[in-house]
Design goal:
Elements: H1 3-11, H2 39-43, H3 71-75, E1 82-84, E2 87-88, H4 92-102, H5 109-122, H6 124-127, E3 131-134, H7 139-145, H8 149-161, E4 164-165, E5 170-172, H9 184-191, E6 195-197, E7 207-215, H10 219-230, E8 235-243
Parallel strand pairs: 1-8, 2-8, 3-4, 3-7, 7-8
Antiparallel strand pairs: 5-6
Amino acid sequence: MNIFARLIDLIYPPRCAECRSFIVHDSNGDGAACRNICTSCLADFRTLDSPCCTICGRPFASRAGGPHVCETCLRRRPAFDTLGAPYLYEGSLTTVIHRFKYGGRRDLVLSLGPLLSSFARAWAPAQKASLVMPVPLHPRRLRERGFNQSKLLAGYVAGDLRTSLDFLSLRRVRYTAPQTGLRKTERRKNVRRAFGLERPERVSGRRVLLVDDVATTGNTLNECARVLLQAKAEKVSALVVARTANPAM
């Protein structure tokens, strides 16, 4: 953390986005990776541990055995090659992401961005990517929300990986109802043909890393990946902050 940021924190101590307690960073700046989430709430973030499905990233209920392809992906393989996430979508992280996404708290990217990019640096598929792309919002939704949380996260990841960022080519061409509250089959239909690509040559022959905040069924990421692969992308991997433990696809 630079001197100016430390001075600001001294005058206006940041509060945790979850529990509202004051956050005090230590003198050497080790706490700077999480600017607005306290260590207690951060400790409540449950990491997504193995064994998980090697494609959709869903954790298995049993801890026995190693990573393998889940039954859902065997029946209907997603368009994306694999999906990675540092955390499960539960506990205090659910509240933090909800405030980030729907509460206008774009400043929460100062914590979620570094956490996601730290995971990406250690995740092999992210290391092999040559282009980072966020899941886009429809212009109407963007006006309602004021920002695209996936674009903010993708910016952090691309910067840390020193990889090209493209947030213009992949577009949401059809306005859709929110995925929250829809059944699994309804979610798939809801995003079908909802995305388009303006500059196919940007992804041709490249390994694309798709970035979003949360993966539930994975249908949004799957539809984006399908569009990118139709444009001759070599491979598409997906990266999210949190993954639900529910069956995917």
